[in-house]
Amino acid sequence: MLIIGEKINTTKKSIDAAVSTRNAELIKNEAINQLSAGADVIDVNTGTRIKTEVDDMQWLVTTIQESTDCRLCIDSPNPSAIKAGLELCKQKPIVNSITGEKDRIDAIMPMVVEYGASVVALTMDEAGMPKTGEDRLRIATKIIDLIKDYNVPMDDIYFDALIQPVGSNPDQGLAVLEGIKLIRQAFPEAHIVCGLSNISYGLPERKLLNRTFLPMAINAGLDSAIMDPTDKMLMASVLASLALLGQDEYCLNYISSWRQGKLTF
Predict the structure, then answer these.
(1) How far apart are CA 163 and CA 198, in angstroms?
(2) Among 86, 115, 130, 245, which one is least packed by beta carbons within 10 Å?
């Protein structure tokens, strides 16, 4: 299970303020805290800072890499900001993201190839957000067809089945799970990722919903998530799920984590 730490994102007031004032210490501490909690990759998102996003992305990537050599997920709707981040990455990056829209693929995929990156593929296209599991599979299949000439290994593709808030879309929890199952069956060598916290947006006790939904998604075929690794109970839920689903041989990671006190609250 690949854990992508979600917390260096300028939608968060503290991160936006840190980027504005170039508070490197706060950013470095945030990256280190997420890695110490179990993150494998750090998401870097400056998408709210439209006027200065390229410079902000460069500063964030440089700052984070002054404290760690971990992989980064360069997360932006802006191709220029993505390129600015990729140029500075010291480890194999992840690009977030392409969609089923050809223009977006044409803008992003050459950079994915040039920098040897993995890529998140959102299962949406010109028609908008998917409504059913079948919609998600259809768009995933469309994306594979559109990017075939770029010769990106399936192991470098992370399909995002696009979680939508169940508070406003009550059927979407089940639709996402169905989409994950269908994509896993169709493309077993690819990865499936999600932005976990979207499931609980607008509802009370969001952490409870996130902690409950994640094991369901792992059972359906999810193998990576953009999430909060500092939520100890959420991370424990990952460990328990992998053990129970036979994805942790002899439960060794679960036992090791228990010995380290990671399962005690």
Answers:
(1) 6
(2) 245
